[in-house]
Write a structure and sequence with these properties.
Length: 343
């Protein structure tokens, strides 16, 4: 199995994180990738730098104006007097504003609020470059899956909270959505995205909400009590052509292996019934019992069993790294997942 990684991804180093009204150290640190990369080398997997993802590839799921914003955000911010070390929004358009015809501002402060969903996606001088590199890893993994070979994209920053035109939750480009679209473009009639990150894949859901050609399934902590708070409920099944093509399986906080794996089984059964040609796995390890913000209580054995179940689906798989912030255990969790997947 090939592993796709680019050293540029180390350069994104966000600092700002707001939790319960207090500034905390950001959990999405370069050390996450270092731990995963070390595990990949210990497993003896081939690490490959992917080809660059061009603008047309990024625009296959992202709006052109959003990409323009993200690419130029740091330069515009740096031109402000007394600017901070990262772009962090201080206002977002409210539903009332949107209903009354709100539109993007001409200033970087106004555009920042327009193109971000929350304060947990600070933009620094290397965010765009690292995000494009992560996206390229996902696209390369999809190309492998299109050739019926499983592959792993060590994507950092992660992506599943990014909408077509809005960043959020540590995410800037939606790597899993780009992989799914790439598989479609390479000839797959229908693709599934299976998201096992502890947080709902709200951006992926949003991108494919009205599409029948991509079936999305997300297993996550109950959004009534966990990020992203407002979506991820069981009744969200898609709209228009996409009605019935979205499955959410929210779990009570504290759910461990058996409840989580039962949801994995349910999602895989739905994916099998959907008749897909390939699967994109949004692989988050923040369902782990060792997470700093633990919502679920999945053990390393649970991740190994999930890998085995996903492999048993018998579909080409592009495995895309999402969350997981317990740096000390990430390598072991990845190893156990691949033990199951390849076993």
């Amino acid at each position: 199995m090939k592993v796709f990684w680019n050293d540029i991804q180390r350069s994104h180093a966000p600092q700002f994180f707001l939790q319960r009204g207090q500034l905390r150290r950001n959990f999405e640190v370069p050390a996450r990738a270092e731990a995963l990369l070390a595990a990949v080398h210990e497993m003896g997997l081939e690490v490959v730098e992917p080809p660059q993802a061009d603008r047309a590839v990024l625009q296959s799921v992202h709006a052109a104006d959003y990409l323009d914003f993200l690419e130029g955000a740091w330069a515009d911010w740096a031109a402000l007097p007394d600017h901070g070390p990262e772009l962090v929004p201080n206002i977002h358009p409210s539903p009332e504003m949107l209903a009354q015809g709100a539109r993007p501002s001409g200033t970087i402060v106004g555009r920042l609020g327009w193109y971000t969903a929350d304060t947990s996606c600070p933009i620094g001088p290397q965010t765009w470059t690292a995000s494009v590199a992560a996206a390229a890893c996902a696209v390369a993994a999809a190309d492998e899956a299109a050739s019926r070979r499983a592959a792993y994209a060590l994507a950092r920053p992660p992506g599943h909270h990014t909408y077509a035109a809005r960043a959020g939750g540590h995410c800037y480009l939606n790597n899993a959505a780009l992989a799914a679209q790439r598989l479609r473009d390479r000839g797959a009639a229908r693709v599934a995205v299976l998201d096992i990150d502890a947080h709902h894949g709200n951006g992926t859901q949003g991108i494919f909400w009205e599409r029948a050609d991509v079936f999305t399934a997300s297993i996550h902590g109950d959004p009534n009590r966990y990020y992203p708070w407002y979506v991820g409920h069981a009744g969200e099944t898609g709209a228009g052509a996409g009605e019935g093509s979205n499955l959410n399986l929210p779990l009570a906080l504290g759910t461990g292996d058996e409840g989580w794996l039962a949801a994995v089984d349910q999602a895989l059964a739905a994916i099998s019934q959907a008749g897909v040609d390939a699967v994109v796995v949004s692989l988050g390890f923040d369902a782990s019992k060792d997470e700093p913000l633990a919502a679920l209580q999945v053990t390393e054995d649970g991740f190994a069993r999930a890998g085995e179940k996903i492999a048993a689906l018998g579909k080409p798989a592009a495995i895309i790294q999402e969350g997981g912030y317990a740096v000390d255990v990430l390598g072991r969790l990845l190893t156990r997942f691949f033990d199951g997947f390849s076993g």
